[in-house]
């Protein structure tokens, strides 16, 4: 307790947790996909990376001794509802009042952090502290992490832009490095001035960094005041600074959402130059500090990182799901829905999902992203979408499809409703298999019970709702010349998706 008081002495806060999530996580395909990327992946213990990040962020702020600001998440608009569900599952007491900033397109981390800093500064003042966390990390020792956050907050209150540098335990070539210079004399926090940032090095260079003792892995986590970051951005990346300010003004002018949602306007946000925060600010600004840290940090960037979380058998085979290994060694298998058997093979990683199978040698893990690139070039939806797609009202699973038809299993949450919509190219036949459906079908309003059905002709305005307290499950059979998800004209929507 005494150390905690020393670390935060003189600080007024508040400390605002800012969580960035999104991306595509191409090296973790086929589980991570564009529509449901890496932060939503369930780890072997059943919790998602995003859930763990939310819990970690809120715990660190609570342990800091500072006034806690409301959690702010920055993400793509398409991930808002899933992210909100994850927050509710992870921290139900923090979900009310938590803020979301929704990006219409991806512009990298510098614009995201600039808009977050503008929002924090407006709500809490220029001296508000921000703890900025990525959502694709695991941290084993949260007590040490909380202590590091307190130390970082102490440095940040003095005007430093603080990054957490991870003490390396191997010559890893997949991470960027930070070279630490002289120690910062002021205050109790054991921070150092940053001498330079180094891109992912060769193995020989990484070995020399490990031996030097003053090089740290770049974690991509930060702590600073809103004003210090915005001032550094103005100095180092004036183009981003000015475009972000324009976007923030437009956001406030057009704000028609509750104050807990900032929907960034596409024209203004798209005009901000896309750049990482390291390139835009951290490599150029004067007052950059690195806080050497050792709290069991892991970057979940490839299947090797997932494999390391699972205990091996006597032959160092590891698995998630039902798996048999016969005369096989050093393998990793993740199988969602079915039994996998490996016979007479060594050193393979096998990832099996409902619609895609990946088999890769550990030496080629970085090349998994090339699979995604080829799928994208071929316009194969498997790069982007799982067979089960999550929606704010529930989910749907594609059971089968062929020329002119598609069959889906649709699940609607209690009290939820799909948009009022119509399709130009397809008709739909709905069969209720569980629950009761309230249906708008043209001019009719119908109650469809289990084992009953209705037909929706192409061009007919319709809506599916679940007014009960039980989950609604229907089978949908689509027929038509075009069955893409973009053949939806939304007329009304409870989730503000009209026009999307």
Write up what this structure looks like.
The chain is α/β, with parallel strands linked by helices. The chain folds into three domains: 2-299, Alpha-Beta Complex (Spore Coat Polysaccharide Biosynthesis Protein SpsA, Chain A); 305-368, no CATH class; 388-492, Sandwich (Jelly Rolls). It is built from twelve helices and 29 strands. It has a six-stranded antiparallel beta sheet with strand order 19-20-21-28-23-26, with no helix packed on it. Helix 4 crosses helix 7. The radius of gyration is 25 Å and the shape is globular. Mean pLDDT is 92; it is low at 1-10.
**Rg from Cα:** 25 Å
The CATH level-2 architecture of the largest domain is identified as Alpha-Beta Complex
The CATH homologous superfamily name of the largest domain equals: Spore Coat Polysaccharide Biosynthesis Protein SpsA, Chain A
Into which percent range does the helicity of residues fall? 25-40%
Question: What shape does the CA trace take?
Answer: globular
- In the CATH scheme, what's the topology name of the largest domain? Spore Coat Polysaccharide Biosynthesis Protein SpsA, Chain A
The gist of it:
By secondary structure, the protein is α/β, with parallel strands linked by helices. The protein is built from 12 helices and 29 strands.
List the helices and strands and how they pair.
Blueprint: H1 2-7, E1 15-20, H2 49-63, E2 72-76, H3 80-90, E3 99-103, H4 109-124, E4 129-134, E5 137-139, H5 142-156, E6 161-166, E7 177-183, E8 192-198, H6 203-212, E9 215-225, H7 226-236, H8 238-253, E10 261-263, H9 266-270, H10 277-282, E11 288-293, E12 297-299, H11 303-307, E13 318-320, E14 323-326, E15 332-335, E16 340-343, E17 349-352, E18 357-360, H12 368-377, E19 388-391, E20 394-402, E21 405-412, E22 420-422, E23 426-434, E24 437-441, E25 444-448, E26 453-456, E27 462-465, E28 472-480, E29 489-492
Parallel strand pairs: 1-2, 1-4, 2-3, 3-10, 6-11, 13-15, 14-16, 15-17
Antiparallel strand pairs: 4-9, 5-12, 6-9, 7-8, 7-9, 8-11, 17-18, 19-20, 20-21, 21-28, 22-29, 23-26, 23-28, 24-25, 24-27
Helix pairs in contact: 2-3, 2-5, 4-7, 4-8, 7-8
């Amino acid at each position: 307790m005494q150390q905690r008081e020393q670390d935060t002495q003189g600080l007024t806060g508040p400390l605002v947790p800012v969580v960035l999530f999104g991306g595509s996580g191409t090296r973790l395909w086929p589980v991570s996909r564009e529509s449901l990327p890496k932060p939503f992946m369930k780890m072997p213990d059943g919790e998602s990376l995003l859930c763990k990040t939310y819990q970690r962020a809120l715990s660190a702020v609570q342990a800091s001794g500072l006034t806690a600001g409301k959690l702010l998440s920055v993400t793509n608009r398409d991930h808002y509802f899933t992210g909100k569900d994850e927050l509710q599952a992870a921290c139900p007491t923090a979900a009310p009042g938590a803020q979301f900033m929704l990006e219409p397109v991806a512009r990298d981390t510098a614009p995201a952090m600039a808009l977050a800093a503008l929002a924090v500064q407006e709500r809490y003042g220029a001296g508000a502290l921000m703890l900025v966390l990525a959502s694709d990390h695991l941290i084993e020792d949260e007590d040490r992490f909380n202590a590091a956050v307190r130390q970082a907050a102490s440095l940040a209150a003095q005007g430093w832009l603080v990054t957490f540098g991870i003490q390396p335990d191997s010559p890893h070539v997949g991470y960027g490095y930070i070279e630490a210079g002289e120690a910062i004399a002021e205050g109790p926090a054991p921070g150092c001035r940053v001498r330079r940032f180094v891109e992912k090095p060769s193995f020989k260079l990484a070995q020399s960094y490990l031996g030097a003792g003053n090089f740290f892995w770049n974690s991509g986590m930060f702590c600073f005041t809103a004003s210090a970051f915005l001032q550094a951005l103005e100095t180092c990346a004036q183009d981003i600074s000015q475009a972000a300010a324009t976007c923030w003004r437009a956001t406030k002018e057009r704000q028609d959402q509750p104050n807990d949602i900032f929907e960034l306007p596409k024209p203004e946000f798209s005009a901000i130059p896309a750049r990482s925060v390291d390139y835009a600010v951290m490599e150029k600004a004067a007052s950059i500090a690195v806080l050497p840290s050792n709290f069991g940090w892991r970057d979940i960037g490839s299947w090797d990182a997932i494999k390391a979380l699972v205990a091996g058998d006597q032959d160092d085979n590891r698995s998630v799901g039902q798996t048999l290994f016969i005369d096989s060694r050093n393998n990793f298998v993740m199988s969602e829905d079915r039994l996998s058997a490996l016979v007479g093979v060594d050193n393979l990683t096998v990832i099996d999902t409902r619609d895609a199978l990946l088999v890769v040698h550990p030496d080629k893990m970085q090349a998994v992203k090339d699979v995604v690139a080829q799928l994208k070039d071929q316009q194969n939806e498997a790069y982007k979408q799982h067979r089960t797609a999550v929606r704010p009202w529930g989910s749907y699973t594609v059971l089968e499809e062929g020329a002119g038809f598609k069959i889906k299993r649709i699940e609607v949450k209690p009290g939820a409703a799909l948009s009022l919509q119509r399709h130009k190219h397809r008709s739909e036949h709905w069969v209720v298999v569980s629950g009761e459906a309230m249906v708008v079908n043209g001019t009719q309003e119908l109650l469809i019970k289990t084992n009953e059905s209705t037909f929706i002709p192409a061009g007919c305005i319709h809506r599916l709702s679940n007014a009960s307290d039980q989950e609604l499950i229907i089978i949908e059979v689509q027929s038509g010349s075009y069955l893409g998800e973009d053949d939806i004209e939304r007329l009304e929507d409870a989730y503000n998706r009209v026009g999307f």
